[in-house]
Design goal:
Layout (H helix, E strand, L loop, with lengths): L10 H12 L8 H7 L3 H28 L6 H8 L2 H34 L4 H21 L1 H29 L16 H14 L16 H30 L2 H6 L3 H46 L18 H17 L2 H27 L15 H20 L1 H28 L1
Helix pairs in contact: 1-7, 1-9, 1-11, 2-8, 3-8, 3-9, 3-13, 3-14, 4-5, 4-13, 5-6, 5-11, 5-12, 5-13, 5-15, 6-7, 6-11, 6-12, 7-9, 7-11, 8-14, 11-12, 13-14, 13-15, 14-15
Length: 435
């Protein structure tokens, strides 16, 4: 009898996965990138709010699609069912070789760099810590989704508690930066505001990954949509509050130039001990996002392999732990290669715009789905079709601005995706031969 994935994820664990994956280490460094494009306190807060709203729009799309297709694989399944099987395959292809594995590698390196704050290490030491973190957390998820999701819940609760503590310190101990009065309101072109939103959306990334575990979620048709909505709203509130705190404690120019803005803000409140505490919080955050991404990715490769679109070994479920063990191991191995070779940065940057092209396609697929006779989802996205059209336009605008900013890298990234097309038809050859 073939082993199946277990149904161990409830609403709390699923919501913790949404919050834990989104709130990674990037919120503690990304505000500087946003401020470079939008040098205005009101503009910065508007950018983060707008990014949260767009993420909510995308979450609503995923929520409806997950209620129709509560299957392991998430975005892969949605693209395959609503656009074409080839489109779904290209998403999974890009995930493994660059996007998803690149996020794992990048998160592990961020974790290792902040760990080096407490135990100084050179470049080799940082790479070794990062690889060790990937292997350890992959092993936790290898042992079972219950262990992985429980770890995610604990880490997420600690992370949100740390953010609340930081905000409480600001309210009780913080003093406004003296330079605020000298910071005049600045104007900026709409294109810069859009680039600022793109930079903020990087910190909101991975909101869709909870859908990859729908096959292991209890009552997935109801649990996944609720987790997406609750999680996205919690994250948006945290992000806007954190950026307001940064801008309250530090002059705008200081936030813009900082490479560790959260540590600088904590230092302004509580000195060196505060900076050390926030560094520990970043490590916890990095563990959370790393564990969540490691948990989510193999479910897509598992789904592809079950349909004959990847090596059949990736569909193997461990007889004892009931996890996609081979897919977890392959993902860990490739992510470690990216850390060891240093190519993960180039791969990750190249696929950011690729992801948003796929998000636009996914939403277009929902629009097509709504036109099918007898369509009756358990959850309907709000504001149809206006919000969905706005999201498609925004997703394409984010992708377009990034492509225009780095055309050479964009060409290489898009080529990587296109290469997946002949690979897809190669996998289909046995099916054609039988017909």
């Amino acid at each position: 009898m073939r082993e199946r994935l277990s149904h161990s994820i409830g609403l709390l664990s699923a919501t913790a996965m949404v919050v834990g994956i989104i709130i990674g280490a990037s919120i503690f460094v990304q505000p500087s990138e946003v401020n470079r494009h939008v040098p205005s306190v009101a503009g910065v807060l508007a950018v983060w709010a707008a990014a949260g709203v767009l993420t909510l729009f995308g979450s609503l799309v995923c929520a409806e699609l997950s209620s129709v297709y509560p299957l392991t694989g998430g975005v892969y399944v949605y693209l395959k069912e609503t656009i074409s099987p080839a489109c779904g395959f290209l998403w999974g292809w890009a995930m493994f070789w660059s996007a998803h594995s690149g996020i794992i590698a990048a998160s592990a390196v961020i974790l290792a760099r902040y760990a080096a704050f407490f135990a100084p290490a050179g470049d080799r030491g940082i790479r070794a810590i990062a690889i060790g973190a990937i292997l350890l957390l992959s092993f936790v998820n290898y042992l079972g989704v219950r262990q992985g999701s429980r770890l995610q819940t604990v880490v997420t609760c600690a992370k949100v508690a740390g953010i609340v503590l930081l905000l409480a310190m600001v309210v009780v101990l913080g003093a406004p930066a003296a330079a605020h009065a000298a910071s005049p309101a600045q104007t900026f072109p709409p294109g810069e505001f859009l680039l600022g939103i793109g930079a903020a959306l990087f910190a909101f990334g991975a909101w869709h990954m909870v859908t990859y575990t729908a096959g292991e979620t209890r009552d997935a048709r109801r649990t996944i949509p609720r987790a997406l909505l609750i999680g996205t709203l919690v994250v948006t509130a945290c992000y806007v509050a954190l950026n307001a705190a940064y801008l309250y404690l530090l002059p705008l120019a200081r936030v813009t130039s900082s490479t560790r803005v959260a540590a600088d803000a904590a230092f302004a409140v509580a000195g060196a001990r505060g900076a050390a505490a926030i560094s520990a919080l970043v490590i916890v955050s990095a563990i959370g996002v790393l564990n969540g991404v490691i948990l989510a990715g193999p479910r897509t490769y598992f789904a592809m392999a079950e349909e004959g679109l990847a090596f059949h070994q990736l569909a193997r479920v461990h007889p004892r732990f009931h996890t996609p063990s081979v897919a977890i191991a392959w993902q860990a191995a490739w992510s470690c290669v990216l850390v060891a070779t240093g190519t993960y940065r180039a791969l990750f940057t190249r696929v950011v715009y690729t992801e948003w092209i796929f998000f636009a396609l996914m939403t277009a697929g929902l629009v097509r789905l709504r036109r099918r006779p007898g369509y009756a989802p358990a959850f309907r996205a709000w504001g149809y079709p206006v919000l969905q059209i706005v999201f498609i336009a925004a997703a394409l605008a984010v992708a377009g601005t990034q492509i225009a900013a780095t055309p050479r890298d964009a060409a290489a990234g898009l080529l990587l995706v296109v290469i997946g097309l002949p690979v897809y038809y190669f996998w289909l050859r046995p099916k054609y031969a039988h017909h």
